[in-house]
Amino acid sequence: QVHLVESGGGLVQPGGSLRLSCAASGFTFSSADMMWYRQAPGKGRDLVAHITGAGDSTIYADSVKGRFTISRDNAKNTLYLQMNSLKPEDAAVYYCRGVAAFSNDEYWGQGTQVTVSS
After folding, report:
1. Read out DSSP for 35-47?
2. Do residues 56 and 109 make contact, with C-beta atoms less than 8 angstroms apart?
3. I want to staple 112 with a disulfide (CB 3.0 to 4.6 A). Which of 9, 63, 69, 75 is the partner?
4. C-alpha R_g of the chain
């Protein structure tokens, strides 16, 4: 059974940092492309960052370039999102998504809330 479990969300002041984690199980994590998405209240779910299975290529939304870093530890089956210089507009529920190699089956976590407020 596939599980993606996000953690690390919380309340942070503008300019602060958070590190999100997504623990994966039940599929071959090391070959799966992984992504972080976010969804603010009343808005759609938007792609934040993408990383290939080997971790050798990343893509970021323009709104987070230079502030967020996506990474992965394939030995630990864990995806990360380091978020620095957080802004109020970064507040959202953050989800991790995995797309399995070959089958293209996709998996979603349950989300973790990030609140940016003074």
Report:
1. EEEEE-TTS-EEE
2. no
3. 9
4. 14
Q: For 46-91, what is each residue's pLDDT tens digit?
A: 999 999 999 999 999 999 999 999 999 999 999 999 999 999 999 9
Is 48:106 a contact under the CB 8 Å cutoff?
no
CA dist 83 and 106 (Å) reads 24
Nearest to 85 by CA among 65, 57, 70: 65
Give the number of residues written for the chain.
118
Which two three-digit tokens encode residue 21? 């984690």
Q: What average pLDDT score do residues 93-118 get?
A: 95
Q: How far is CA 118 from CA 14, 26, 60, in A?
A: 6, 39, 26
